[in-house]
Structures are given as structure tokens and as C-alpha cells.
Specification:
7 helices
């Protein structure tokens, strides 16, 4: 266990809790988390996950703006569902990103877990984009990624990080339920029964 793993644990748990609560401060806390995990993953040979932290950084900046000004007339973005074509495009993006990253890891690195590293990276990238748009379906991709991340980090000996992703998994399930409830309440308030 290193200081970067501990710092990643603390900032990661706080970030996801803030996301569950739909709190805008998840983005600056997330940026700190991405820096800690970038350093950790480079040291563990999880190169795709390290690269993912760089992309997360950019997506966090986009999400921060989007949550504040991405709604109608540049207002705050509300929790909502993607359209079916948007969701299918996201799933197609997961497949394309997975294939590209796996190819790159096999060809250019000494990764021993290229396929698993690639699929978790692909799921996480698309989930982070979906989160930036405040789409409820982001939680399903995070759940799928966490179910793979937990044993992957355990195999790499990153026990604290594996435990953190166990916590993330639980928080994702809570987040899914809370965001669905928030959406239902918002719709009920917009369309009261007559």
C-alpha cells in the first residue's frame, strides 16, 4: 500500500459519494483522484487505466461545465435518460474503444491483463461521458466496470483499491436508485396530477 493508493482511496470514495448526491463538487475532487490514480496505475503496469485518468481529467472539466450550463438556455443540467439511439451509440463506443485499446496494449506494452484492462477502460470512459451528460444509465456501465475492476485489482495486489471498487459498486447501486428517484420526483413536480 502506498500513499498514492491511500490518497486515491480517499478522494475516490468522496468523489463517488458526491456524484451519488448530484453535487457539483464531485468534479474538482475527481480531478485530484485522477492524478493520484495515474501515478498508482503507471507503477502497477495498468497503462490503459493510467491513460484513462488523463481522459477523465478532460471529461471532468467538460462535466463540470455541462452540469452548470448544459441544460436548456445554458441552465444547470437535470438528471435524465439518454434516448435509445444515444444509449446504443454509447454501447457501440464501448466495443470500439475496447478493441482499439486491447490492440494497442498487446502491440505496444507488456500488459499481462490487456483484455480486462481494455474493457474496464472502455466502460469507464463511456460511463464518465454519460455522467457528464447526467444520464441515469451511466450507473449501469459503472456497475459493469466495477464488477471487473474488483478482481483485476486484487490480481495485481492492489487490495485497498480493490476494496475501494467494492465500495464504488455499492455506491453505484445506491446512485442508480437515487438518480431514478430524483428523476421521478422532478417529472412528478413538472406534471402534477390534475
Amino acid at each position: 500500500m502506498t500513499w498514492t493508493e491511500i490518497a486515491g482511496f480517499v478522494t475516490g470514495a468522496l468523489c463517488v459519494w458526491l456524484v451519488v448526491k448530484r453535487n457539483i463538487w464531485n468534479f474538482p475532487v475527481g480531478i485530484a483522484n485522477y492524478i493520484f490514480f495515474f501515478v498508482l496505475f503507471i507503477g502497477a503496469g495498468l497503462y490503459a487505466d493510467a491513460g484513462l485518468q488523463v481522459v477523465y481529467f478532460g471529461l471532468a472539466l467538460y462535466g463540470w461545465y455541462s452540469w452548470l450550463r448544459g441544460g436548456e438556455d445554458h441552465t444547470a443540467l437535470k438528471v435524465h435518460n439518454p434516448t435509445l439511439p444515444q444509449f446504443l451509440a454509447c454501447l457501440a463506443a464501448v466495443g470500439a474503444i475496447w478493441a482499439a485499446i486491447q490492440f494497442g496494449l498487446h502491440r505496444y506494452t507488456d500488459s499481462t491483463v490487456a483484455g480486462w484492462d481494455a474493457i474496464t477502460t472502455a466502460l469507464s470512459l463511456v460511463a464518465q461521458f454519460m455522467l457528464s451528460r447526467k444520464w441515469i444509465a451511466n450507473w449501469w456501465l459503472w456497475i459493469a466496470a466495477d464488477l471487473i475492476y474488483i478482481p483485476l485489482y486484487a490480481v495485481k495486489g492492489l487490495w485497498l483499491t480493490a476494496g475501494l471498487y467494492g465500495i464504488f459498486l455499492t455506491m453505484c447501486i445506491v446512485g442508480l436508485m437515487e438518480w431514478r428517484t430524483a428523476r421521478a420526483k422532478m417529472l412528478a413536480a413538472e406534471n402534477p396530477a390534475t
